Amino acid sequence: MEALELLAGGFAGALTPINLLWVLIGCLLGTAVGVLPGLGSSMAVALLLPMTFALDPTAAFIMFAGVYFGGMFGDSTMAILMNTPGQASAIASTFEGHKMAKDGRAPQALATAAIGAFVGGMVAASVVVFLAPALADFSANFGPAEFFALAIFAFIATSSVVSDSALKGLAALVLGLGFATVGIDSISGTERFSFGVPQMFDGISLVTVTVAILALGEVFFVASRIRRDPTGMQISAAGRPWLSRAELKEAAPAWARGTAIGLPFGVIPAGGAEIPTFISYDVERRIDRRRPNPMFGKGAIRGLAAPEAAGNATTGTAMGALLALGLPVSATAAIMLAAFQQYGLQPGPLLFDRAPELVWALLASFFLAMIVLLIINLPFAQYWAKLLLIPKPYLYAGITVFCGLGVYATSGAVFDLLLLLGIALIGFAMRRHGVPLAPLMIGMVLGPLAETSMRDALLSSNGDYSVFVTGPIPLVLYGLLLVVLALTVRSKIVNRARQDV
Q: What's the alpha-carbon Rg for the chain, to the nearest Å?
């Protein structure tokens, strides 16, 4: 009951006219960016990060949450209409969603995706309301050794899962940790990796790295392929934007199963919603094989409903893990963690005590964002799709200008613009060679926490390294890490064996 009372107070804060406006703006921006090819919620949050410091923290995070959820909705529109997912989390939706669109059922496919995302997001938001405070109370038991174990779990689990090559994932992680260690060490005063450049003594700004890797790097990548990739809409989205009773009956079990699969992945550092969407798709495909008239491969509505529900369920519980544990499980969550730190806030158990108005207004805004997104996606999907008609040169030129303005506005230094360009070229090279970006962002954000926790643990134990494996919480985290690694290795061996057959 206490959680419901606090949530009611959160609604009182979120339902003010100005905060409702920020919910709407966030949802509109997230959906618009998600619809456009190659863009996603991580890029939208990265671009907005340097521009929101003038906002009240509550307003800023309400808008970020709308962008986060809206990006998932927009990605689905792109995947269904163009067979080109905006982010990896929408790949599973292309398999049956695009077949539905080619079969003349694009409006029904878009409605299935919108309702599935709504169901998954609402259930996840409800779970987070009751789960996040309990997680925060539990995380009060965390000391330096526990936080170090948590960071290691996030590092290795994310690096090994999000890429076909564990080596590429670890390389991205090391690069992120390298960026995080540049500058003067706050404890010893030692100069680290600054190469004698005075402008780097204060370190590399997380805003610069985020905008360079996720936004400007994507611009360079698109520019290198602009003559090869097709542009323009391929399938009309006009028609009946709702489902019949038979279609609702067909999709409902898949929405429920997808939501159940997606919920736990929000607190597992596995790179975001990619894994649960594929798992939910595979579950529905296996169930479909037992039916008298299998539909998969012909535009099965269940093959779209389940991944959409799973993706938004994961996104919802990921926000809970971020607030309660300070644990980012995706690149977008890592950027939001950086935003909290820019405002002088540290997600975790103390956040619920120090900023309860912000936390509960943010949780209440999850429900509002789901309703707003359903309203602006069910009837207006065909209009969102018309954003695909914007010529790519104009679109990405505008993004480039915002990248430069955002970084320059935060520092006022020309050197940061040169740094932005150099790091963006690294982001471009990573995309060209299939190196995942999420481990880099998580390494950059959690690297300082891991370093500080390791030092504090060693200081408290007089240099005894056994402190890192003492206590139930570190042992459980390391045990879970071994399980994740074993399952990942098994999955990759099975997939390679299937390819060889």
A: 22
